[in-house]
Amino acid sequence: MKSILYIGLFAGILGLGACTQKQAPNMAEEQHVNEDVVDLTDVQAKNINLEIGQVEYKNISKHLKLNGKIDVPPQNLVSVSIPLGGYLKSTKMLPGTHVNKGQIIAVMEDPQYIQLQQDYLSVRSKLNYAAKELQRQKELNVDKANSDKILQQAETEYRNLNIERRALAEKLKLININADKLDENSLSRTINIYSPIDGYISEVNVNIGKYVTPSDVIFELVNPTDIHLNLTVFERDLDLVQIGQKAIAYTNSKPNQKYEAEVILVSHNVGGNRSAEIHCHFEKYDKSLVPGMYMNAEIELRNQKTATLPEAAIVSFENKDYVFVEIAKNKFKLTPVTVGETEQGYTTVDKNLAGKNIVTKGAYSVLMKMKNNESEEH
Question: DSSP string spanning 202-257?
């Protein structure tokens, strides 16, 4: 009988312990819920100038953040080469040197320049004789003192020599020699290379005494006055970008220095990385901006009416954003929120907060009160 009594008593103790264990998680869960809720007295609400409001719908300008680099259009990037080749005799150009259009940037020399000038003068002399001979044959043919065949031969000779003269003149033009001013006293073994644009020397690829072929690029020149910003936009954002939109660009080294730009071209060719390029033109040219420089940019999208709250309504805690939603008089719950753009003191927030009463002033004071209560409880 005693054994049965002891067994029953032991089972009761175990049952009581099991009930206690089952109740513990519920208490802990209830305590966890209460950690996000804070109660204020009327006096406390008055002392912190507590204000309650709701989500307002306002036109907020959204910005698309992109990155890219400064580039120049092809017509402003020039490669200088020598169509006939030759040896570089002299140059004073260095990368970064400013040059004007028509300025001498190098002097070349080669025996073939002399030969080309000699050939031109020789053909021109023959052409003068052929012209006189043609005129004589025409006069003779009037009285039939010569045959038509001889006249045709004179005309053909004159025409062929004239074609050869023009071809040689064009070759001379390639090496910057004016054939009309050429005579036996102005033959030269050197030629000048002139800058085709106003701009800067970006690359020097030869040294004095080196022989360059027609395919070799001697200098790279760039005209930076028409530089533009080449930005990369991902496929998902491509439909948000349009020609004429304004952009604000800045560098990582000087983020406070802003440069205004405008979208002038949107590429709809999506590459392998699922992105496309857009081109922006700077409103004002700045010499500190050079091709190849990396920049960040924010493109202003069209104003959109969206849910907003005053900046003071949003509190940041442990790298997250929250608002206090009223669940009863002077009783508020800390609620996570996703924020967006901020403009004129208002920040875009989740639409699911619409219709709810939210602390719009004194939110950080409410947060401090809630955390102080937690410290006292622990």
Answer: EEE---TT-EE-TT---EEEE-GGG-EEEEEEEGGGGGG--TT-EEEEE-SS-TT-
Q: What are 306's two structure tokens?
A: 């969206």
**In the beta sheet, which residues pair with residue 215?**
none
Assigned token pair, 241: 């970008």
Chain segment 217-270, per-residue pLDDT in tens: 999 998 887 788 999 998 888 888 888 888 999 988 888 899 999 999 898 788
CB-CB contact of 262 with 246 (8 Å) = yes
Predicted local confidence at residue 117, as pLDDT: 96
Both structure tokens of 97: 């040197």
- pLDDT tens figures, 149-167: 888 999 999 999 999 999 9
DSSP state of 301: P
Cα–Cα distance, 286 to 268 (Å, whole number): 29
List b or e across 48-83, with b for residues whose CB sees 16 or more CB atoms inside 10 angstroms: bebebeebeeeebebbbebebebbbeeebbbebebe
Give how far Cα 186 sits from Cα of 120, 126, 164, 168, Å: 13, 19, 21, 16
CB 242 within 8 A of CB 287: no
Label the pairing between strands 86-90 and 211-212: antiparallel
Phi-psi region of 292 (alpha: psi -120 to 50; beta: other; left: phi over 0): left
Cα 202 to chain center, whole Å? 20
Share of the chain above pLDDT 90, in %: 44
Measure the CA–CA gap between 345 and 307, rounded to whole angstroms: 13
CB neighbours (10 Å) of residue 168? 21
Phi first, then psi, for residue 91 (nearest 5°) are -165, 150
pLDDT digits (tens, 9 = 90+) for 30-66: 444 457 899 988 888 889 899 999 988 887 767 788 9
Say how far apart CA 98 and CA 48 lie, in whole Å.
64
Distance CA(120)–CA(122), nearest Å, equals: 5
